[in-house]
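Schema walk-through. Below, the input block comes first and the output block second. Nothing else is stored per chain. Lengths vary across the set, and this one has 151 residues.
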Amino acid sequence: MASKKKVKILLVDDEQEFLDSISERMRLRGFEPTLALNGEEAIELAKQEKFDAAVVDLKMPGIDGVATITKLKELRPKMKTVLLTGFGNEKVKQVTESLESEYFEKSEIGSFWDWIKRLPKKLEDTMAAAGMASHGDLDNARKLTEEEDED
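--- output ---
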């Protein structure tokens, strides 16, 4: 029996305690987290390994979360990304969304975990849509990705 591939998530935050806590919760949910303490480290890891998603803090030493997500998207355009911050504002939210990235305040951690819970299905739908599109089934591919956007 083939086991389901674990979803690989890159967690980027300069607070080790927060990283340890969130990665433990991810493992309990069946995800495979990899930790990075800053944007530069995250970018190096993404060059070496393919991650399904990245959860990135906004305020970190060196490059900030928005710049990190921008670079991660350049390296891996299909990677799902999330900016998770305790210091956000409307402008940061708009910039994040313009990068086709999710945005959550740490005070909305419940919504973040709901998004994480739906992540495997989002990834599956994206891959199914890509498969359909590559086999000429553009209408169904579009329908699948539109349903995903409504989530």
